[in-house]
Amino acid sequence: MEQSARQERQEARADTSRGDGGRPAAGLGPMAVLRPVRAGNAFEETVERLLQVIKLGVVAPGEKLPPERELAVRLGISRVTLREAIRALQDAGYLDVRRGRYGGAFVTYTPPAPGAGMLRKVVADMGAADLNDALTFRMAVECGAAQVLAATPLTDEQRAVLRGKLMDLEEARVEDYRRLDTAFHLSIAELTGSPLLASACADARLRVSDLLNAIPMLQVNLEHAASQHQAIVAAILAGDPEAARRAVAEHLEGTAALLRAFLG
Fold it and tell me: Could you tell me where the beta strands, DSSP code E, fall in the chain?
């Protein structure tokens, strides 16, 4: 029985990274988060888009960004502009650019250690109004994404992707938890097939990422969150939009309550 469960986890993870013919599953990964930049502020917006991928952990510390050619096409910019943005992020300590056959732009950014002091600093920097607005925005777009996905007839591959993201999160080491939690939540929006919705959810997550990273890891909270994540997936796979919305809302309300508790 244990061997069967292990095999199921391996197959689910394989489906999250391969589509038909061994190609990456559509809509999942750094390219799903990135959206084209506007010509007037190409450099600044390219830095912003790449920072989003880095700070959300879509590309994990130690891993490298997609090839320049793919990034330039996705962002709708020249490779010269892309290289300038990468150089700026390297100077700021977010990337390490290596040359040669196995080179590339490798992520060096790691979130600061969690703690109540760090949380208060993040909130002070944001301001109470921005904090409330960010939490409201996240509630709206993530509940909406879950509703849309639950109302969508899912393929076997999409179901496997969602289950695989959940399994990765449930088996995550503490140091990887926030990054894999982000991947789980963003996958719900990405699987709807709406680039605008995926982008909105990524933006909402980025607005609270420093807050979430600052929350100390409590085992009882992780266990509670695991039950809530399972309820979200169960509602989506059952095709119940209202149950999916309620499950996401309960989960996000719990996170907001935890924030308030640590802030005293």
Answer: 95-98, 104-107
Q: How many residues does the chain have?
A: 264
φ/ψ of 211, rounded to 5, equals -65, -50
Packing angle of the helix pair 195-214, 116-126 (nearest 10 deg): 130
**Residue in this structure with the two tokens 């879509």, named with its chain if needed:** 58
Q: Please choose, from the candidates 207, 53, 49, the residue with its C-alpha nearest in 3D space to the C-alpha of residue 125.
A: 207
Reduced to 3 states (helix: H, G, I; strand: E, B; else coil), residue 93 is coil
> In which residue are the tokens 């930049």 written?
37
Alpha-carbon gap, residue 39 to 250, rounded angstroms: 40
Q: Which of 254, 112, 128 is nearest to 246 (CA)?
A: 254
d(CA 192, CA 258): 29
What are the pLDDT digits (tens) for 134-190? 999 999 999 999 999 999 999 999 999 999 999 999 999 888 899 999 999 999 999
**How do residues 217-242 score in pLDDT, each as one tens digit?**
888 888 999 999 999 999 999 999 99
**Which region, left, alpha or beta, applies to residue 114 given φ > 0 means left and ψ of -120 to 50 means alpha?**
beta
C-beta separation of 175 from 60 below 8 A: no
Query: Which helix (H) or strand (E) segment is 100 a member of?
Result: none
| Domains along the chain with CATH numbers | 34-107 (1.10.10.10), 116-263 (1.20.120.530)
Q: What is the pTM of this model?
A: 0.79
Contact 162, 188 (CB under 8 A): yes
